[in-house]
Specification:
The radius of gyration is 51 Å and the shape is rod-shaped. The protein starts with 15 loop residues before the first helix and ends in a 5-residue tail after the last strand. It contains 11 helices and 11 strands. The longest helix has 53 residues. The N terminus and C terminus are likely disordered. The strands form 2 sheets. The protein has a 6-stranded mixed β-sheet, with helices on both faces. A 5-stranded antiparallel β-sheet has the order 2-1-5-4-3. By secondary structure, the protein is an alpha+beta fold. A hairpin with a 2-residue loop joins strand 7 and strand 8. Helix 3 runs antiparallel to helix 4, helix 4 packs antiparallel against helix 6 and helix 8 crosses helix 9. It folds into 3 domains: 89 residues; 148 residues, Beta-Lactamase, CATH 3.30.450; 169 residues, Alpha-Beta Plaits.
């Protein structure tokens, strides 16, 4: 027996065969003695029984050793080698699958065990790779959900629609492999799509290049309220209103839906074909769906705010807005930085006579026509407000009294040349206005002072015959009563 067999639990001189022989030998000897006792007159039977016992014990010993003990010992040795091979397989050594040099009866067992072990090892390895992929996908999903939560918080903290559009565009561009993000909003009153945000910025987005903006009904997303996906231009069917025509590009148009009504389109263009996976599409849809209600909420607030500060009849700002705006513009002297503005106080001449003679509906039409004409003759930065009744005010930011007087005369002339005869058969063809002009900080340093100065100048204009412009003099603050400067219109 080799050295390795000494590690086996079976001792060298006290084997299983010996143990079995010692158990069988007394039994055989007892049988021989019993037989001799039964036949006492034949002593040779006892000797024959003894010989038979010895021979049978030897046969049993040798047979047990050959049939049981040696195979068990070899099997134990092979199990040790298998255990060692298992360790080598786990360690990934090159000798892991070496075939043992054993008998044929063990070789078959080893081959079966080796094949089963290889299958189990491969399955475990594949499962480990699958778990790694699942962990990576889970980590990616967690990261996307965290990004979605953060963006949703930013959206819900937005104070204007443009804040939401900017957050949407920048987030989509940063997370996805996009070439361009366009957000377009439907303007029902003008029946066109307007770009409210684009990223990166582009200067070539013109109506001539993309006529769909002037014909929203040609856009399938606007018509159906459903998304439109093209994984690759040139392979997939593109719509006639496509904004991405480069071969190989892909684009995806997602509707902005509020209360079941499509208000716009988010156009996502990518130079990476087939980049719109199911996971990325779900993430984008969740992001846009979380932004849509907030956009609707801000639009509702904007409409309510506009109703609160807009005069319904004329469309001009109301008196409340005028006073709040002036309070923001006129600041304490220590915070003033060479700011100046002028205020025009405008009143329709003999307007009460128009109401009394032709009725209030005609008077309302006259007010609307006057407000529209005034607005057309002002800059975008100028503010037109209805002060009350037939009185209007105009705020001219960054304008001194001299320039304000010129603007006032332009407004007076525009109204004087406006024809009103189409409103009613007997309405006077002409309606005139009188204008008082005051400037900040030349004539006043508070809102109430500025309004009072302009109102006094207006009173002077009416006292001097109406249909004229009167401006407060620059040195009026140094005197008890305001001096006036009169701008008399040219007579035809």
């Amino acid at each position: 027996m080799d050295q390795s067999s000494s590690k086996h639990p079976l001792p060298r001189n006290w084997s299983t065969a010996a143990k079995l022989s010692l158990l069988v030998f007394p039994f055989l000897a007892l049988c021989a003695i019993s037989l001799a006792w039964i036949i006492p007159d034949r002593p040779w039977v006892l000797w024959a029984g003894a010989v038979v016992c010895v021979l049978l014990t030897g046969v049993i010993f040798q047979g047990t050793r050959l049939v049981v003990t040696q195979p068990l010992r070899r099997l134990a040795l092979e199990m040790e080698r298998i255990a060692q091979s298992g360790g080598e397989i786990s360690a990934g050594t090159d000798q892991a699958w070496a075939r043992p040099s054993v008998g044929e009866e063990i070789r078959g067992l080893w081959q079966k065990f080796s094949g089963a072990y290889q299958r189990i090892w491969k399955e475990q390895k594949d499962r480990a790779l699958e778990l790694q992929r699942e962990a990576a996908a889970h980590e990616s999903l967690t990261r996307r959900l965290l990004e979605l939560h953060q963006v949703a918080q930013m959206i819900h903290q937005a104070i204007s629609e443009h804040d939401i559009y900017r957050t949407l565009a920048h987030t989509l561009y940063a997370v996805l492999p996009l070439r361009q993000v366009l957000i377009l909003r439907l303007n029902p009153s003008e029946d066109r799509l307007q770009i409210v945000w684009t990223w990166p910025k582009r200067d070539d987005l013109s109506l001539d290049a993309y006529p769909v903006w002037d014909k929203p009904s040609s856009c399938p997303v606007i018509r159906s309220g459903r998304e439109y996906l093209v994984q690759r231009v040139g392979r997939d069917l593109t719509c006639a209103s496509s904004l991405s025509n480069s071969e190989g590009d892909g684009y995806w148009c997602v509707p902005l839906v509020i209360g079941g009504r499509t208000i716009g389109v988010v156009h996502l263009a990518s130079s990476v074909p087939d980049c719109w996976t199911e996971q990325s599409r779900k993430w984008v849809e969740a992001l846009i769906n979380s932004a849509a209600p907030m956009i609707g909420h801000l639009q509702h607030l904007e409409r309510a705010k506009r109703r609160a500060m807009i005069d319904e009849l004329t469309g001009a700002y109301n008196r409340r807005f005028l006073e709040e705006f002036l309070a923001k513009m006129i600041v304490p002297e220590e915070r003033r930085r060479n700011q100046q503005l002028s205020l025009l106080m405008i009143d329709l001449d003999h307007f009460k006579l128009v109401n009394d003679t032709y009725g209030h509906p005609v008077g309302d039409e006259v007010l609307k026509a006057v407000a529209s004409t005034l607005h057309r003759n002002l800059k975008e930065s100028d503010v037109l407000a209805r002060y009350g009744g037939e009185e209007f005010t105009v705020i001219l930011p960054r304008t001194d009294s001299t320039s304000a007087a010129i603007v006032a005369e332009r407004l007076r002339s525009a109204i004087a040349n406006l024809s009103f005869c189409k409103l009613a058969p007997s309405v006077p063809d002409r309606v005139t206005i009188s204008i008082g002009v005051a400037a900040y900080p030349s004539h006043a340093r508070t809102v109430s002072e500025l309004i009072r100065c302009a109102d006094e100048a207006l009173y002077q204009a009416k006292s001097l015959g109406r249909n004229r412009v009167v401006c407060v003099c620059a040195n009026s603050l140094a005197t008890a009563g305001h001096q006036t400067q009169t701008v008399t219109p040219e007579r035809n």
